[in-house]
Design a protein that fits this description.
Elements (H helix, E strand, L loop, with lengths): L1 E5 L6 H12 L2 E4 H11 L2 H12 L5 H12 L8 E4 L5 H13 L6 E6 L2 H17 L10 H15 L2 H7 L3 E5 L4 H12 L2
Parallel strand pairs: 1-3, 1-4, 2-3, 4-5
Helix pairs in contact: 2-3, 4-5, 6-7
Bound molecules: adenosine monophosphate (AMP).
């Protein structure tokens, strides 16, 4: 199974992806996680991405398309994958389309978690507080001001990805403001399980 979860930062893509990974035995490909790992390891990509990520902006298409291309080619992605945080621009969506069609692969579903953006800032404040309480590091970009920049980047560059898939008849939309279990049930209904 190959699927894409779309939706603004804080919509719950990561939470739902983690559950789907367990359920279907596929891998979660989060460009955000991969970039954070590159930053932590101090790789050339990490060095380039660090400041952009900390400010809440988008890393260049060239970099993220490159890392996704390499990651999709790894053996553990052969069974299927969930893309979380990618594609974030129409150029990335086009590159993915080409990458998959070159390998005769198809997406099974593209699912948008639709959320109330006003409520997202509150969610992000909670995420930061929960991480702190659990003794985990708080993501620098979960600072409310940086988060607003991330939302602005979403509205400027990523919102156009949804119509890209709608135009291809591939898009399903679910209400991401519902409790986690209800969102999960809606996802399962779309995935036919
Ligand atoms: P995320 O964990 O998906 O919220 O991503 C954290 C940050 O990584 C984003 O705010 C961007 O700076 C960067 N990033 C992650 N995925 C992408 C992408 N597909 N395109 C551009 N930048 C990305």
């Amino acid at each position: 199974m190959r699927l894409i979860l779309l939706g603004p930062p804080g919509a719950g893509k990561g939470t739902q992806a983690t559950r789907l990974v367990q359920k279907y035995g596929i891998v979660q490909l989060s460009t955000g996680d991969m970039l954070r790992a590159a930053v932590a390891a101090g790789t050339p990509i990490g060095l380039k991405a660090k400041a952009v990520m900390e400010s809440g902006g988008l890393v260049s298409d060239e970099i993220v398309i490159g890392i996704i291309k390499d990651r999709v080619a790894e053996p553990d992605a052969a069974k299927g994958f969930i893309l979380d945080g990618f594609p974030r621009t129409v150029a990335q969506a086009e590159a993915l389309e080409k990458l998959l069609s070159d390998q005769n692969l198809k997406l099974d579903a593209v699912i948008e978690l639709q959320v109330d953006q006003e409520a997202l800032v509150g969610r992000i404040v909670n995420r930061a507080e929960e991480a702190k309480a659990a003794g985990q590091p708080v993501r620098k970009d979960d600072d409310p001001e940086v988060f607003k920049t991330r939302l602005a980047a979403y509205n400027r560059d990523t919102a156009a990805v949804t119509p890209f898939y709608a135009a291809r008849g591939q898009l399903s939309v679910i209400d991401g403001m519902k409790p986690i279990t209800e969102v999960a049930a809606s996802l399962d209904a779309i995935l036919g399980s």
